[in-house]
Amino acid sequence: xxxxxxxxxxxxxxxxxxxxxxxxxxxxxxxxxxxxxxxxxxxxxxxxxxxxxxxxxxxxxxxxxxxxxxxxxxxxxxxxxxxxxxxxxxxxxxxxxxxxxxxxxxxxxxxxxxxxxxxxxxxxxxxxxxxxxxxxxxxxxxxxxxxxxxxxxxxxxxxxxxxxxxxxxxxxxxxxxxxxxxxxxxxxxxxxxxxxxxxxxxxxxxxxxxxxxxxxxxxxxxxxxxxxxxxxxxxxxxxxxxxxxxxxxxxxxxxxxxxxxxxxxxxxxxxxxxxxxxxxxxxxxxxxxxxxxxxxxxxxxxxxxxxxxxxxxxxxxxxxxxxxxxxxxxxxxxxxxxxxxxxx
Length: 344
Hints:
9-stranded mixed β-sheet; 25% strand; 12 helices; 344 residues; 3-hydroxy-3-methylglutaryl-coenzyme A Reductase, Chain A, domain 2; 2 domains; Alpha-Beta Plaits
């Protein structure tokens, strides 16, 4: 069978910003590349970015980071499954020794499990340095499986992935237990800047966030999600920086929170499942390497520092776009007018 030539699929890309970011991960202004067919997104994120430069900046905090793979094992019955599971969980050091054979960066940090009938869903959780870690944790799990089956011959192999991970699916478990970078971004916008630059008031944004993002998503049956369009910024950022774009499925499960504080607007975006890295698959392409370098994410730092920086920048970008869209939707006709003007 003749091999098909690998071709490129060009997507319009433009740099937006600068965004002003503060916090322990980075404290500087950053210009962000975004690759998208939805060209008004550049202008929307750009408006949020301009607002950020007129404030103390977007504070980005990394709450947690881990990558997961859930293996699926079988026993003869539930009691046998429970006994084996308890024994396995008591051997963390032995498990880590096996993991260390697969990678010098992968480190087993936790395990969670579910027993369903005679089935064992064992969720293995790792830190993976600067890689997003998909292949790294699967390779580690692939090493652990034969070791476990050898140590516990009463168990049988079922799958390298049991969907309790949970990869590229909208589930509750990732938000509860964590998968990827858990990032919170926050900004306080003075009332006069809100009125002049966003053409709205803090009260209107707070009100719309409650009625649209919170109640509207609840009515729609959303799962651990209360935002207007996280996926737009995530996809554009992911494509520009060589990420696995399918991870925007769980990445877009996040919550917007807004308050009026002493007349000003406090606005926050929480992204508990932000999966990304600065090394690994998809990163060897020239434009990706150039973008990561421009973002300051290819520096000599301790393992994991570059990927944390990238996650903080990505989450700040999401905040800029979310803020701008919510502001636009407080004014009748503004959203469609912008799309018609910029896309037609």
